[in-house]
UniProtKB/TrEMBL annotation, chain A:
Annotated membrane topology: Multi-pass membrane protein
Localization per record: Cell membrane
Coiled coil regions, renumbered to chain: none
Transmembrane intervals: 70-87, 107-126, 132-149, 170-192, 212-233
Organism lineage string: Bacteria, Bacillati, Actinomycetota, Actinomycetes, Kitasatosporales
Listed InterPro entries: CPA3_antiporter_subunitB (IPR050622), MnhB (IPR007182)
Protein's name in the database: Sodium:proton antiporter
Sequence similarity: Belongs to the CPA3 antiporters (TC 2.A.63) subunit B family.
Originating species: Streptomyces musisoli
Na+/H+ antiporter MnhB subunit-related protein domain: residues covered: 105-226
Alphabetical UniProt keywords: Cell membrane, Membrane, Transmembrane, Transmembrane helix
UniProtKB/TrEMBL annotation, chain B:
Coiled coil feature spans: none
Gene3D superfamilies for the chain: 1.10.287.3510
Protein name: NADH-quinone oxidoreductase subunit K
Entry similarity comment: Belongs to the CPA3 antiporters (TC 2.A.63) subunit C family.
Localization per Swiss-Prot or TrEMBL: Cell membrane
Organism expressing this protein natively: Streptomyces musisoli
Length: 245, 115
């Protein structure tokens, strides 16, 4: 049975590898000069005063796709919350205070504010420099969890009222939708970047609605990561199976 | 003009597939899926590369002064990473439930359905 499966895998894998190599041989050469979509995306981004072209692609030219991406994230978080809820045969134990080595504690508490501000900076400068809502949101959310390393789980739970983060996740998704609908009300297409003035190139307020959508995504990603990690950590730290069930 | 980066992407993808097919542990399988997915990052970024080009961010270079790599595939890669992370989280949550209900994470031992 197992040998047969391995043989089947070898045949299928060899076929797949051959097809992939054939496809690679037909692709345009690596590092070529011809990038028609890229050139047009750069033109469109510069026309709308967005210095970071990738943000312009994500939140202006393909803002509608980012809405889908955000919905995937939201749905996945919802799925995890449902899957990782406390079951009927489980109970919650209070997490015990843990001993933390002093250098770890000192370093974690020192880095926490720096990491948090870095995350917010990356979100705020998404339209100017590399980064944006997705990256900055993850940085800001992980910064909070330094408290778990530096102190203990109880301390993390005190600064992390889960309901607030779940609400802000939903509010951020709504904010994105409302921004999209606002452009419909203004008489253009859904999520079209024509609502706000484009501003001065390479300043914080440039890019029209890009910074706003960026902020909404940053808020959503940060809350989503906090909620996700909270449920996984709850499983590891707090939720215990009933004895003898 | 060479195609080595594309072949690297294909190699990473096939490696991930091999891991998925021979996996004896569901957490390991989720990791292998992440390897498969990272092949798509390599492929996308390789497709968008341009010789001698820099990042498509104009906060510190004047527009037009230097060639830039394709921003569209970079944005696609970002989407890819986000979707990959969410899928990984969801699958790990499923594995956690399987481990609790069935007491095993070996896919070969998960034969019968249980309520």
């Amino acid at each position: 049975m197992n040998r047969l499966r391995l043989w089947l895998l070898a045949v299928g894998g060899a076929g797949l590898a051959a097809l992939l190599v054939a496809a690679c041989l037909d692709l345009p050469g690596f590092g070529g000069r011809r990038h028609p979509y890229g050139d047009r995306a750069v033109q469109a981004s510069l026309a709308r005063h967005t210095a970071n072209t990738i943000s312009s692609v994500n939140f202006d030219q393909r803002a509608y796709d980012t809405l889908g991406e955000m919905s995937i994230l939201f749905a996945a978080v919802l799925g995890c919350v449902v899957l990782l809820r406390q079951a009927r045969d489980e109970h919650r134990d209070r997490p015990e205070p843990a001993e933390v080595a002093r250098p770890v504690r000192r370093y974690a508490l020192l880095v926490l504010p720096v990491a948090l501000v870095t995350g917010l900076y990356v979100v705020a400068h998404g339209q100017l420099s590399p980064g944006g809502g997705f990256q900055g949101g993850v940085v800001a959310a992980t910064a909070l969890h330094l408290l778990y390393l530096g102190a203990d789980y109880g301390a993390l739970e005190r600064v992390r009222p889960l309901g607030v983060y779940e609400t802000s996740d939903a509010v951020a998704v709504c904010a994105y939708l409302v921004l999209g609908l606002a452009s419909v009300l203004a008489g253009t297409a859904f999520l079209a970047n024509t609502l706000l003035p484009y501003g001065t190139f390479n300043t914080l307020s440039s890019g029209g609605t890009v910074p706003l959508l960026n902020a909404a995504i940053g808020m959503e990603v940060a809350s989503a990561v906090v909620v996700l990690l909270a449920h996984f950590l709850d499983q590891a730290v707090e939720i215990e199976e009933e004895q003898g069930s | 003009m060479h195609i080595l980066p594309y072949l690297v992407a294909a190699y990473v993808f096939v490696t991930g597939c091999y891991g998925l097919a021979t996996s004896r542990n569901l957490i390991h399988a989720v990791g292998c899926l992440a390897v498969c997915q990272s092949a798509t990052y390599v492929l996308l970024l390789a497709v968008g590369y341009r010789d001698g080009a820099t990042a498509p961010v104009f906060s510190d270079i004047a527009p037009g002064s230097r060639p830039v790599v394709d921003p569209v595939v970079q944005a696609l890669t970002l989407t890819d990473i986000v979707v990959g992370a969410t899928v990984t989280a969801l699958l790990l949550a499923l594995v956690l439930q399987i481990a609790k209900r069935h007491g095993t994470v070996d896919p070969d031992e998960l034969r019968e359905l249980r309520g």
